[in-house]
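Last lecture ended with a question: if I hand you only a sequence, what can you say about the shape of the protein? Today we answer it with a concrete record. The protein is Protein kinase domain-containing protein. Below, first the input exactly as provided, then the predicted structure, then a couple of comments.
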Amino acid sequence: MQIDQDKKVLEENHLKVIRLLGKGGFGRVYQVYKEGSGVIAAKVMKEEDFEYGNWQTGIKLIKNVQNPFVLKYFTDNMNGEYVVIQMEYANLGSLENINASNTFLP
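The predicted structure:
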């Protein structure tokens, strides 16, 4: 089962899985606990589906952005088969769901 494999990969990255947050065409996102950082989000995807060049371009664009509406990126790790992207955890769900529910944002 893919979720079991993801948990193994996350544990190898010293992350403790709390729960699955969602899944899409390229991978799954988990709420995880990271020692020293607390609760964060971690996306697990196959390296073959990860476009590293595009990712690096995006990181350069948001690296120095100080905006409460832009999630902070922490790191990405590759092990030859999987990529784990660690970033800030947003507890309100996806922007699509927030927009559909007309949730007020300060």
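Comments.
1. The radius of gyration is 14 Å.
2. Strands lie at 15-23, 28-34, 38-46, 73-78, 82-88.
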